[in-house]
Amino acid sequence: MNTRWKPSATVAAIIERNGRFLLVEELTSDGLKLNNPAGHLDPGESPADGCAREALEETAHRFRPTALVGVYLSRFQSTRTGEDVTYLRFAFCGEVEGDAEPGRALDDGIVRTLWMTPDEIRASADRHRSPLLLRCLEDYLAGRRYPLELVYTDASVTA
Fold first, then answer.
1. Considering only CA atoms, which of 40, 38, 35 is closest in space to residue 24?
2. What's the maximum distance between 2 C-alpha atoms anywhere in the chain?
3. According to the model, what pLDDT value does residue 1 have?
4. Which of 45, 68, 80, 98 could make an S-S bridge to 146, C-beta 3.0–4.6 Å?
5. Quick check: 148 and 48 in contact, CB under 8 A?
6. Counting beta carbons within 10 angstroms of the beta carbon of residue 18, is it exposed (0 to 12), middle (13 to 18) or buried (19 or more)?
7. For the segment 102-142, what is each residue's pLDDT rounded down to a tens digit?
């Protein structure tokens, strides 16, 4: 039997304010981990729209993507459960509009948000949910920015 391989499409927000980056601490099958605000692309949305939605759901901050930082492929294998998933990540940088919305609940599994410096993020690599957290940060710090139009979403997706 042939099984078609399908990576999980995800989106991630790289959010900087005053030299610090907004991360989430989330409960995973492998314990508490740090990650960019990120999640799966939902049906009927563009990657940039999905990124804005995930950032709001996970951090209570309104986020407006302004550029694509990169497209990444990674494989996750849980040491605890044996789960094996390949992720195709679209990482965007952009701007947050003001502070977190007061009283807005964070997504299930998100324990808290925190602002960290690049050095703090590098020093906590053993707590990263994915090696892509650090890779996206380093690409952002290296100035990688691509126009949003690089990722085209046909009207059939949102119809």
1. 35
2. 53
3. 53
4. 68
5. yes
6. exposed
7. 999 999 999 999 999 999 999 999 999 999 999 999 999 99
Strands of the chain, DSSP E: 8-14, 16-17, 20-28, 31-35, 38-40, 63-77, 84-96, 110-116
Other CB atoms within a 10 A radius of the CB of residue 116 amount to: 16
Lookup: tokens for 121: 């993020």
Q: Which two tokens stand for residue 42?
A: 């939902």
Report d(CA 71, CA 89) in Å as an integer.
Answer: 6
Question: Tokens representing 86?
Answer: 């390949």
Phi–psi pair at 16, nearest 5 degrees? -115, 140
Sites in the chain below the pLDDT cut of 70:
1-2
Q: pLDDT at position 43, please? A: 95
Spacing of C-alpha 116 from chain mean position: 15
Residue pair 37/63 in contact (Cβ under 8 Å)? The answer is yes
The DSSP bridge partners found for residue 112 are 25
Distance between CA atoms of 58 and 26, rounded to whole angstroms? 9
Tokens of 52: 């804005």
Does the pTM surpass 0.85? The reply is: yes
Write down the pLDDT at residue 29. Answer: 82
